[in-house]
Amino acid sequence: MAPSNVDYSLYLVTDSTPAILGDKDLVQVVEAALQGGVTIVQYRDKVSDTGALVSTARKLHEVTKRHNVPLLINDRVDVALAVGCEGVHIGQDDLDLKSARKLLGKDAIIGVTVASIEEAETACRDGADYLGIGTMFATATKTNTKDIIGTAGTKQILRAIESIGKDVQTVSIGGINASTVQRVLYQASDSKKKLDGVAVVSAIIAAKDPKQAASELLKLVQNPPPFA
Ligand code: TZP
Ligand code: MG
């Protein structure tokens, strides 16, 4: 899948910790979330060793391929290469974007986490396909976030991207769920540059029924009810 054809509307980021995944099976949860309509999946696993990462990523890739949805790997370009999946998501402290691009090639989807205008400008200049803008709201899923930027900070970044004139896709991440998604979509999106989607972890992975949670979120993203 060419990076330009990716649908970022409902971006699932996984978590393998018992606090979020519980005793569920990650591959089954991702399968359910795909049935519910998630449009892209990032395998984010800070607890498994490299062998387990590759093995789980392969299983996830089988599932995402069946649904014709891209699979990206968080942090680990080597794992993405080993698995042959569609790309990676890198943070500010990971392998730099230019090196990741060199290793993965032009057809890979590469996303970068940005929390400031400067970081967004650099990622755009260096050829990111999409930006994960955040942290939007404080979240128990990732407590070591230095930057809670809220809707106002997100809007500033969207405006800066607009003024660069770069055709980069954007998703918001952090504390997004069925109760907050409406506010994110209305308050963060500038009149010209809109968010292309929202990224969620716990709203789907920790849900009792991940398929139902994904399907409800997708409806809200595709057809947001009026926000007062
Ligand atoms: N990056 C910024 S916040 C976050 C990541 C990976 C976690 C978001 O988790 P949740 O459960 O959707 O708030
Ligand atoms: Mg990272």
From TrEMBL:
Domain Thiamine phosphate synthase/TenI: 10-204
Similarity remark: In the N-terminal section; belongs to the thiamine-phosphate synthase family. In the C-terminal section; belongs to the Thz kinase family.
Physiological role: Condenses 4-methyl-5-(beta-hydroxyethyl)thiazole monophosphate (THZ-P) and 2-methyl-4-amino-5-hydroxymethyl pyrimidine pyrophosphate (HMP-PP) to form thiamine monophosphate (TMP).
Protein name, as recorded: Thiamine phosphate synthase/TenI domain-containing protein
Source species: Coleophoma cylindrospora
